[in-house]
Design goal:
- By secondary structure, the chain is α/β, with parallel strands linked by helices.
- The chain has a domain at 7-229: Beta-carbonic Anhydrase, Chain A, CATH 3.40.1050.
- It is 45% helix and 8% strand.
- The chain is built from 16 helices and five strands.
- The chain has helices at 7-13, 20-35, 46-55, 73-76, 96-107, 123-130, 138-143, 146-155, 161-183, 185-192, 219-229, 247-261, 265-276, 312-318, 327-330, 342-345, and strands spanning 61-65, 84-88, 113-119, 197-203, 210-214.
- The chain has a five-stranded mixed beta sheet, sandwiched between helices.
- The longest helix is centred in the middle third of the chain and has 23 residues, at 161-183.
């Protein structure tokens, strides 16, 4: 079982419980019986409960009325269990929750009639007319009724007191009907196609009778205006794809990328300057190596023969930076041995 329906598919799938004119007649006859004190109290027994529990509900109308306890909708229309789909809210306004409920009643349950029912002496409309100080979440509710009060004052600028309240109650019914048509695409299309009848009424608390207002006097204009506002927008054209770059541009960009990645000459010179400026530890004479023997001098001895250079271990002792980073540049080069004379070579 699905909740709701698609506006485009509604026209072909909507199956009303019965024709709209027959549903309207059932409501009118039931209210006449109630007002005359001749209610039948039908569809209220155990058999009806069992029937609707297993066979589902098939109401003849969706009615949005006020929460006022003096306006019990099933009773004033002399209907029973499963006969009408009821939505009650103070001031019979149509906000998102009420609109969703109306759409469910029409689209899922197939009610051919939507009735917006106000009533005399409505407290919510009275608060809007008197601009009363209210609390909690009530201001949000009253604000939905204030446009109807403004219309009533516009229609009859001289109206005051009970007259203004009466006109505001009627204007509020018209306003709710207008909001339903403007804000519900599903209901709007159903009404436009003649599959659903949207009407208004005002219940008199004293007499028990309903004053039937019929369709909204400007329903045609509202439907036309709403259809223009909610007309689907055309899909935007796809943007053209950017052209690929030419090969010459790619070739020109390659040297620039390589140049930016390479090290600059200034950076290399700075690194060498830092390495050459580091101090070199002076060699100490008489220092012994790991073998315990004194290191041999690198100076030439008698006979012009050069002495062997010191071992690597001895160099480590003399130069503590020998194994540190960049030590190869810090050590001074070994002095070259003196060249033998030509006379010595021929001996």
């Amino acid at each position: 079982m699905t909740f709701g329906f698609c506006a485009q598919a509604f026209a072909s799938t909507f199956v009303p419980a019965l024709p709209a004119d027959e549903a309207m007649q059932l409501l009118k006859d039931g209210n006449a019986r109630y007002a005359a004190g001749e209610s039948k109290h039908q569809h209220q027994g155990a058999d009806r409960r069992a029937e609707t529990a297993t066979g589902g509900q098939h109401p003849v109308a969706t009615i949005i009325g006020c929460s006022d306890s003096r306006e019990p909708l099933e009773i004033i229309f002399d209907q029973g269990v499963g006969d009408i789909f009821v939505i009650r809210v103070a001031g019979n306004v149509a906000g998102p929750d009420e609109l969703g409920s109306i759409e469910y009643g029409v689209g899922h349950l197939g009610t051919p009639v939507i009735l917006v029912l106000g009533h005399t002496g409505c407290g919510a409309v009275t608060a809007a007319v008197e601009n009363a100080r209210v609390h909690g979440n009530i201001p949000a509710l009253i604000n939905q009724i204030k446009p109807a009060v403004a219309k009533a004052k516009y229609w009859t600028p001289t109206a005051r007191g009970a007259e203004l309240l009466s006109k505001a109650i009627k204007a509020n019914v018209w306003l709710t009907m207008e909001n339903i048509l403007r804000k519900s695409a599903e209901v709007r299309e159903a009404v436009k196609d003649g599959q659903v009848l949207l009407v208004g009424g005002i219940y008199d608390l004293t007499t028990g009778k309903v004053e039937w207002l019929g369709q909204h006097p400007e329903q045609g204009k509202i439907l036309a205006a709403a259809s223009l506002v909610h007309k689907p927008k055309p899909k935007p054209k796809p943007k053209p794809k950017p052209k690929p770059k030419a090969e010459s541009d790619s070739a020109a960009e390659a040297p620039a990328a390589e140049a930016s990645a390479a090290e600059t000459p200034g950076d290399a010179a700075s690194a060498k300057s830092s390495a050459s400026s580091a101090p070199v530890a002076p060699a100490k004479s008489g220092k012994t190596g790991k073998t315990g023997k004194p290191a041999k001098s690198t100076r030439s001895g008698k006979g012009g023969k050069a002495a062997k250079p010191a071992t690597s271990d001895a160099q480590d002792e003399i130069n503590p930076n020998a194994h540190s980073e960049g030590a190869g540049e810090l050590l001074a080069p070994e002095p070259a041995a003196p060249a033998k004379s030509a006379k010595a070579r021929h001996k």
